[in-house]
Amino acid sequence: MTVLIGYLPAPEGEAALELGFAEAKLRGTRAVVVNSPRKGAVDSVTTIQQEDTARIVELGAADGVEVEVVQPTHEDDLVGTFNDLAKLHEAQIIVIGLRKRSAIGKFILGSQAQRILLDAAVPVLTAKA
Fold this sequence. Notes:
Blueprint: E1 2-6, H1 11-27, E2 30-34, H2 50-62, E3 67-70, H3 78-88, E4 91-98, H4 103-109, H5 112-119, E5 124-128
Parallel strand pairs: 1-2, 1-4, 2-3, 4-5
């Protein structure tokens, strides 16, 4: 069993890590940190680098949690990617960070977090920065 943590290099991602590691420690399980860039996108803002991966593993270890970082790409189905990973890693819960967006922003751009909340195959826990 695992805790699946959605991570982007942003304050919301850091909040998800903190809460996800606490949840994994509480449950006595490991954590799988997911950084899933959109396939074909050149976006260094959302993709983590090797040094970030090492830092995340060290943060988990400091909390007594075994951590694996995965970076699968996705097209338009981020929820499907999370559901596939939840099944593969036998996740008990998904932890994601949230940021405030206006109603217009959600309408125009959609909300991946909202889609994960509504369509995830396992319970979802959210963290605010």
